[in-house]
Design a protein that fits this description.
Radius of gyration: 16 Å
Strand content: 15-25%
CATH class of one domain: Alpha Beta
Strand order of the largest sheet: 1-2-3-4-5-6-7-8
Distance between the termini: 18 Å
Keywords: Hydrolase, Metal-binding
Shape: globular
Helix content: 25-40%
CATH architecture of one domain: Alpha-Beta Barrel
CATH superfamily of one domain: Metal-dependent hydrolases
Pfam families: TatD_DNase
Number of helices: 7
Protein name: Hydrolase TatD
Organism: Thermus scotoductus
GO molecular function, one term: metal ion binding
Order of helices and strands: EHEHEHEHEHEHEHE
């Protein structure tokens, strides 16, 4: 099994040691994601053995985008242990005021992923489903060759768009919550070869 989405750089030393010494024994590989410029170096330092890296600008950090950050991201993205770009996407739940910046950051990272032939890891969250609708529309326009819908929420428009462009759908711990029957229903109807699993550690139980 591969954990396709984790944030090892956020773990305390004791927790990190547990993951690296014990938890990894049960995994084929783990992808740890550095989500802003201050975390890229540490993320790459952790990418050893079974651990691989992704680098990107989380939508809540889209305000950090600048020519210098774009250049640095393009540099780190070429590291031999990097396997994906992201996570990027749209988050109107925490930072609705930066929608235009988030879209710009998404476009920059989407173009970088295409140029390097790497998967694009996509985050999306909103209170009213608008971010999901907007990301679905973005997918249908830009049609990335390799996209991963991280912590898939089973939003209908996003599911349709994801299937149309051949995206992967990644599920985490909330799949098991009693209240989330809609996630289990989505899991059952999606193509088996489009499914991924993740922990999103340390953010999801």
């Amino acid at each position: 099994m591969t954990d396709t989405h984790a944030h090892l750089d956020f773990l305390e030393a004791e927790e990190l040691a547990q993951v690296l010494k014990e938890d990894l024994k049960a995994l084929r590989a783990l992808l740890t994601l550095g989500v802003d410029p201050s975390r890229w170096e540490r993320t790459l330092n952790l990418a050893q053995g079974k651990v691989y890296a992704a680098v990107g600008l989380h939508p809540t950090a889209a305000h950090l985008l600048s020519p210098e950050v774009e250049e640095a991201l393009a540099h780190y993205a070429r590291h031999p242990r990097v396997r994906a770009i992201g996570e990027t996407g749209l988050d109107y739940y925490w930072t609705p005021e930066t929608r235009s910046l988030q879209l710009r950051a998404l476009e920059v990272q989407g173009a970088l992923a295409e140029a390097l032939d790497l998967p694009l890891v996509l985050h999306v969250r909103s209170k009213d489903g608008q971010a999901e609708e907007d990301l679905a529309a973005w997918l249908l326009v830009h049609r990335p060759k390799k996209a991963v819908l991280h912590a898939f929420s089973a939003h209908p428009a996003l599911e349709r768009a994801g299937l149309e462009v051949g995206a992967y759908f990644s599920f985490a711990g909330p799949l098991t919550y009693r209240k989330n029957a809609h996630l289990r229903e989505a899991l059952a109807r999606l193509p088996e070869d489009r499914l991924l699993v993740e922990t999103d550690t340390p953010y999801l139980p």
